[in-house]
Design brief:
Blueprint lengths: L1 E5 L4 H12 L3 E6 L12 E5 L5 H8 L4 E4 L8 H15 L4 E5 L27 H14 L4 E7 L12 E4 L11 H10 L9 E6 L1
Parallel strand pairs: 1-2, 1-4, 2-3, 4-5, 5-6, 6-8
Antiparallel strand pairs: 7-8
């Protein structure tokens, strides 16, 4: 399996990369600064460039079997700008499977299911800007016809690898607390080998 990994130097992306390389998979990792990449392996191809450049996305996706995006918003329109390029070039290359890291804010609110969590009293965040950006990317995926999964962790400290956590389709499990970057990355990586959550968002917490 050859993976196109976007956001490979990020907190969750680096955990996904570690998983892929330790399982002897091939990875085409897209990074802005290759000096920040701490992993080296024979199966790793590093592509340095700006994810907002369609040519970089086209080059990174070509020859792969699946896309994993651990991109964050960068407090800008990174997700909503790059996602149309990702979808376009996945389709051009006949790639169906994509796994992305989202946010719990774009899950449905348990108390008011017609709202997203970031629109409801369940959200503690004062700013909704990042959640709105994640929502735009999710809606693009939802209408793409691809086999997508959006992993939506709650509060995300570095933490440690515990290995046990709770998950639920389209909602955050009741009484959420946090989830480490390690368990989030591990769960996202495991979705490469599962069809259970295709076409859904997955709420993740301890």
């Amino acid at each position: 399996m050859n993976i196109c990994l976007l956001g490979a130097t990020g907190r969750v992306g680096s955990v996904i990369l570690e998983n892929a390389l330790s399982n002897h998979l091939s990875v085409q990792a897209v990074v802005r600064d290759s000096k920040k990449l701490i992993h080296e392996a024979s199966g790793l191809k590093v592509i340095e460039g700006n994810i907002l450049d369609e040519a970089v996305i086209a080059h990174s996706i070509k020859g792969t079997d699946v896309v994993i995006s651990a991109l964050n918003t960068d407090r800008r329109t990174t997700l909503s700008t790059s996602m149309p390029f990702i979808i376009k070039h996945m389709k051009q290359n006949g790639i169906k499977r994509i796994i992305t890291i989202g946010t719990a804010g774009i899950l449905q609110a348990r108390s008011t299911p017609h709202l997203y969590r970031f629109q409801s009293s369940e959200s503690k965040r004062k700013s909704t800007k990042d959640a709105e950006e994640h929502l735009k990317a999710y809606l693009l995926l939802k209408n793409s016809g691809l086999d997508w999964t959006v992993v939506c962790p709650t509060y995300l400290p570095v933490g440690e690898r515990i290995g046990t956590y709770r998950f639920e389709k389209d909602f955050l499990p009741e009484n959420p607390s946090s989830i480490s970057i390690y368990d989030t990355g591990d769960f996202a990586f495991q979705q490469l080998f599962s069809e259970e959550f295709i076409g859904t968002r997955v709420g993740l917490t301890y």
